[in-house]
Write a structure and sequence with these properties.
Elements lengths: L2 E5 L4 H4 L3 H9 L3 E6 L4 H6 L3 E4 L14 H4 L2 H22 L4 E5 L3 H10 L3 E5 L10 H4 L8 H13 L9 H5 L6 E3 L16 E3 L8 H4 L9 E5 L10 H8 L4 E5 L16 E4 L4 H7 E6 L3 H10 L3 E3 L4 H12 L3 E3 L7 H13 L1 H17 L1 H18 L12
Parallel strand pairs: 1-2, 1-4, 2-3, 4-5, 5-6, 6-7, 8-9, 8-11, 9-10, 11-12, 12-13
Helix pairs in contact: 2-17, 5-6, 11-15, 12-13
Length: 402
Amino acid sequence: MAHVAVFNFPAIGHVNPTLGVVAELVRRGHRVTCTATDYFVPAIRSAGAEPVRYASIFGEFYRSPYTAEALRNSALRSLDDAVLLVDAAEEFYRANRPDVILYDSISWAGRFYASKYGIPAIRLFPSYAFNECFSIQERFPLTTFDDDEVVTMLDRVEALLPEYGFEGRAMEFVRTVEKLAIVFMPREFHYAAETFDERFVFVGPCIRDRSAFQGVWRPSEHSTLLVSLGTAATGWPEFFPMALKAFGDVQVVLAVGDHMDVAELGRIPANVDVRRHVPQLDVLRHATAFVTHGGMNSAMEALYFGVPTVVIPQMNEQKATALRIEELGLGRHLAKADTTVTSLRASAAEISTNPEIAKNLAEVKNRIHETNGPITAAEAIEKHLSQARCDPPARVARPGDR
């Protein structure tokens, strides 16, 4: 059996997609350790893995608002956090050398540590993957490579690379494609899927029970509509009162996140269950429709349960997902500027009764369940590790080397 180390990014949309794979690897007898901030320790333990704690520069990023101020210098902070995590994990992994490292697509700490000590590495994509032909940034850019912050970050990366055993320039490092990548979405959902070769294993959403750290939710006897803009929803105080007016005559679960003053909603109708957070898997299992911001976690969980979505994106990556959902006939894209009481009500009613959407969702749901993501991912990881053990030994630094 192997020791599998998971270097993750401390955000819900990055940790939760991996838990099903972690649990499957543990079930197969592997030792799995996962870097984690305090908030994610219960989630890691619920999957049977051992947390390797560290204090992230991002702090409580899992509930940080999506504002320009909160996201400022995020590229530089990601680099600083990666360096911090390598140093923080050094002592633990010196005594517990991993056989393979799985690292989140934006957690460069895993890449740094794997290269420094000659450990096989596998990249995890909780959202869109990239290859030599495709990058979601080119279609829906969050930033550009000529942005001042990104230029500064790349200069610092280039200076660090020799320390971690990399040769070449920063852009080569950024655009490197690993020998194996696990993508947590169905292949048919991904843009330009035909350009992704055997290095990319599309496992779809890897769902497992999260009640141990999220609690449970019990359905009513009526059909349920879930409305949520994610845990970090902010900057749009008009939305939730609008949703109350739009859905005053149906059973609604309204998740308002950490940045909404519930008192501002006024009187809550009896048919509306307002919470800051909900056990989303429980609700989606019984939902007839989902009004969402289009975070990849939420989008994939909706597909897993075959729930149609109205996607109101708050940022560019979410817009990419909203357009893809509409293109594939799995729901509707509703632009923020077009969101009104009337359009909300009409969109939710339409997706709930549209037979073509229901048919498309059923087909995708069936393929997701046939793929059985946790097993497919675990088998790919084991195969990669077996092949890596047959390869010539890589350069290996001594633990503690700088």
